[in-house]
Design goal:
316 residues; alpha/beta; Rossmann fold; Alpha-Beta Plaits; 2 domains; four-stranded antiparallel beta sheet; 11 helices; 34% helix; ABC_transporter-like_ATP-bd; ABC transporter domain-containing protein; transport; ABC_transporter_ATP-binding
């Protein structure tokens, strides 16, 4: 469905926002672009939807050359942008139905699907309220509905779960999965590592305009096989204790310290953290399998880790 081959986007003075990016998104697949702010994700999407032309490389959607025919991208894909779209003066129901008719959807079918989406995302109580009275999360869900009421063959969702409460976030992911099951190719732009591991089929980790790694979440974690994740919560006014030679700090965020522990040293690790707990140096600890987050922080640079510490706070 979507094929991106060796795409380069170079600005003045040789600055490359994208550098030899190649990826594919298949029909029926949820594919994620995962990376920190400024990684080049938005620039790549702008080229996919035909609003920006690459310096070199090719982009095709359903066999159509989007670089030569950018207007075709708007017919073949629908997109939910990261920023809120203004729907002032409309109710959610009106906005969604209008979007469907603009996509040349059948009026009756658009009305039916609008009612279905409002119900499935549990936003029916706001269906006929003016947009000025809606919260940011409800508006975000309405924009999603406008994007998928008549979906393109490729649906692009830029940070679709921003501002959405945990319950409706799950409902949203159910609808995204149903899109894929109905043959739509779904491209998700995100920096939420936890959601990426739970809901995305394949992904590419992008940093500084380059694809650093790509594959399924399991494939991306493969390099860390044989290790476990150890999380420490340091007591207030205590510093990080000396770390044993067998452990490696993968991330430090506030009072939390994340370490990678070889499975062969689990017994030693438990003895060490139990000693820290008994001496009141840590509040608690958790030992668990390696996550996609651990693989993600293996790839990005230290300064980017600081930008992405918030991902550990995003609980689905």
């Amino acid at each position: 469905m979507l094929l991106v081959n060796n795409v380069v986007k170079e600005y003045s003075k040789g600055v490359k926002a994208n550098d030899q990016i190649s990826l594919s998104v298949n029909p029926g697949e949820i594919f994620g672009l995962l990376g920190p702010n400024g990684a080049g994700k938005t620039t790549l999407v702008s080229q996919i939807i035909g609003s920006m032309k690459p310096s070199s490389g090719t982009i095709t959607i359903d066999g159509v050359d989007i670089v030569s025919n950018p207007q075709q991208a708007r017919k073949l894909c629908t997109m939910q942008p990261q920023s809120q779209v203004s729907i002032e003066g409309l109710t959610p129901k009106q906005a969604i139905e209008l979007a469907g008719r603009m996509r040349k959807g059948d009026r009756h079918k658009v009305a039916q699907r609008t009612d279905y989406l409002l119900k499935e995302l549990n936003i029916e109580p706001w269906a006929n309220k003016m947009a000025t009275n809606l919260s940011g999360g409800i508006k975000r869900l309405v924009i999603f509905c406008m994007t998928v009421v008549v979906p393109g063959k490729l649906v692009i969702l830029d940070e679709p779960t921003n501002d959405i409460d945990p319950v409706r976030r799950r409902l949203l992911w159910n609808q995204i999965r149903l899109l894929a099951e109905n043959g739509v190719a779904v491209l998700i732009v995100t920096h939420n590592v936890i959601e990426s591991e739970q809901f995305i089929d394949r992904l590419a980790i992008i940093s500084e305009g380059e694809v650093l790694a790509s594959g399924t979440p399991s494939q991306l974690k493969r390099d860390l096989e044989g290790n476990l994740r150890l999380q420490l919560v340091i007591q207030p006014e205590h510093s990080i204790p000396p770390i044993p030679d067998f452990a490696n700090i993968t991330m430090h965020s506030g009072a939390r310290v994340f370490l990678s522990i070889p499975q062969a040293f689990v017994s030693e690790a438990v003895q060490w953290v139990e000693h820290l707990r008994l001496t009141n140096e840590i509040e608690e600890y958790t030992l668990s399998p390696i996550t996609l987050e651990d693989a993600y922080f293996k790839w990005i640079k230290p300064q980017e880790k600081m930008e992405n510490q918030e991902v550990t706070d995003n609980v689905v």
